[in-house]
Amino acid sequence: MTAQKPTSNVAPGNTVYIRNIHDRVKLTEVEDALRTLFEEYGKIVEIVVKPNQKARGQAFIVFDNPQSAAKSIEDIDGFEVFKKPLSCTFSKTRSDATVAREGNDAELEEHKKTRLAEKERKKAREAQEEKLKRPAPSDQPDGTQPPTRKGLKSTANAKAGVVPEEYLPPNKILYIKNLPPDYDADEELSAVFQRFPGFREVRVVPGRQGIAFVEYQNEEGAIQAKKATGGMSLAGNTISVFFQRQ
Length: 246
Hints:
The protein is α+β, with helices and mostly antiparallel strands. It is 34% helix and 20% strand. It is built from 7 helices and 12 strands. The strands form 4 sheets. A 4-stranded antiparallel beta sheet has the order 2-3-1-6, with helices on one face. Strands 8-9-7-12 form a 4-stranded antiparallel beta sheet, covered by helices on one side. β4 and β5 form a beta hairpin. α4 crosses α7.
């Protein structure tokens, strides 16, 4: 009796998610090999090979129908490419190309917003997990924690768990830093940030120059604004844009 492959609990779709690709092979060679291997199963809409170091060894094949995707998974899962067996399953989410084919512009835009929001949340979760793994900093030469006075708690562990501003999870309020002195936040800054959906208001802190807060109706608008304006130059100053610390 032939052993059956374990079934996936991911709903069938047009996109095949591939793992365990040899990460030392050039991306162009990987894409060519995947195209040659998968194109016999149907029309390929898109091939996405992940270039960043953390996601190396992964790729997505988008077909124009779920039947082609299902048949390719059935045949190719476990097949060796570049001396490594591929792991093939259905992707958990639809690709941009699939949404563009099956929906309209509004659906595609909403899909991109959702994907970007989840990417920001994942980045924040990973940063928090990485912080918690690190040992608390020590001021003692021998690496031990400094003694604390009775009734007082050391702040070392608290500092170790603080997530840097660039990895804070998404929310609907942005924190803007390094604004030019005497910059007109009410008019000029509003003109910059009201271009993004759900804009509500710009708030400044009395007596504090160089910072401001921008609020949106939901975090999707804030995510778009942060991505588009981070590192923007205003009157000669390069501004920093973060999500507000909750």
